[in-house]
Specification:
single chain; 365 residues; mainly alpha; Serine Threonine Protein Phosphatase 5, Tetratricopeptide repeat; 22 helices; elongated
């Protein structure tokens, strides 16, 4: 269609465009696509229709197709904010965070005070593990809006990801103070997880319990409680929550192994063996085999424990914990030389490990 024809059709194009965006708001995706397609037949480079097609196909889950529409729009209408925003969100959905950052930064050239875009940029920097840039952008958002929840939550995640648990706790607690009567369950489990990582287990328990009151089958709350009680050496309570997870997910290999560990510590050896074997029936698991080796140790089955631990070392030769367990087993049965040789075997890899070095020093002294 010529430019003159497009100009003549402008009122009709505008009318169809409005209808298409209204249909999009009503989530009538197919009808919206029909409208935008009609416009593109009249004006193949129409920016409203190209962005509309991008938004519609993205809503439908066709992210790559949506990206093509936004790119097509930007080819003919460089700097179109809606196309930039949509394209960046497409890259984010495709886990192409660096590309998303580049697009959002183009957007910020036109509007550097857009808090929504700034938090997206900070999130993307967090995903690519650029701590300094992520924190700088989050803090810029908080300078503009000190109670912005997306930035506070982002800072909580950022510090947690980089194992700065006390700083993460500061932001999650700040988020808790900003919450209304109903606290988001993710805030509660995040505070609990910070305490879990800081080994302040008893302080984490109330938050996981509060989360469980909101959602009685929440995996993170159940796991948090089980792990806190495990850290406090309250194995019976720990086992109670491992079992509650297994009621929902009986083939969870990690939880089966943790339940086995709890039973072994409680001296319930048959139950422990049953849990470990259930885990191994799903697929090979180092910690389930280690659990069986520890079980053999607890039951005084010296040769069986040695054989299991040596097999594990063959399969996972750089796992220092296996050498510690084997050396400890030798030591408890009076084989000091074998214990020292086991630890020295690990040191031949040239890996510095303080646990290995300390144990070797104790044996030799």
């Amino acid at each position: 269609m010529s430019d003159t024809d497009v100009y003549a059709q402008a009122p009709r194009i505008s009318e169809i465009s409005k209808k298409g965006y209204q249909l999009l708001k009503e989530n009538r995706i197919s009808d919206a696509i029909d409208c935008f397609s009609k416009i593109l037949l009249m004006d193949e480079n129409n920016n409203y229709a190209l962005v509309g097609m991008g938004d519609a196909t993205r809503k439908r889950g066709s992210v790559r197709e949506a990206a093509n529409f936004y790119q097509r729009c930007l080819t003919h209408h460089p700097g179109n904010n809606y196309a930039l925003f949509g394209l960046a969100d497409c890259y984010k959905a495709l886990n192409q965070y660096q590309k998303a950052i580049e697009i959002w930064e183009q957007y910020l050239v036109h509007d550097d005070k857009n808090i929504t875009v700034l938090t997206r940029v900070a999130d993307a920097y967090r995903k690519v593990r650029d701590f300094a840039k992520s924190k700088t952008v989050y803090m810029k958002v908080l300078e503009m809006e000190e109670t912005n929840q997306y930035a506070i939550i982002g800072l909580g995640h950022l510090h947690y990801d980089f194992k700065e648990y006390r700083d993460a706790l500061f932001y999650w607690e700040k988020m808790l103070k900003l919450s209304d009567d109903h606290v988001d369950i993710r805030v509660l489990t995040s505070i609990g997880n910070c305490h879990r990582k800081l080994k302040s287990f008893s302080e984490g328990i109330p938050y996981f319990e509060a989360a469980l009151k909101q959602e009685g089958r929440n995996f993170y709350a159940l796991f948090g409680l089980a792990d806190c009680y495990r850290g406090m050496n309250c194995q019976e309570k720990s086992l109670e929550f491992w079992n509650r997870i297994l009621e929902q997910d009986p083939r969870n290999k990690m939880i089966l192994t943790r339940a086995g560990d709890a039973c072994r510590t409680l001296g319930e050896y048959e139950k422990a063996q049953d849990f470990y074997e259930k885990a191994l029936n799903i697929e090979f698991d180092t910690y389930a085999v280690l659990g069986l080796a520890m079980l053999a140790k607890s039951q005084g089955k010296f040769d069986e424990a040695v054989t299991s631990l040596k097999r594990l070392i063959q399969q996972d030769s750089r796992n220092y914990r296996l050498y510690i367990e084997l050396a400890d087993h030798y030591l408890n049965n009076g084989f000091r030389r074998e214990a020292a040789e086991t630890l020295e075997e690990f040191q031949k890899f040239g890996i510095k490990n303080q646990h290995i070095a300390d144990m070797l020093e104790r044996i030799k002294s």
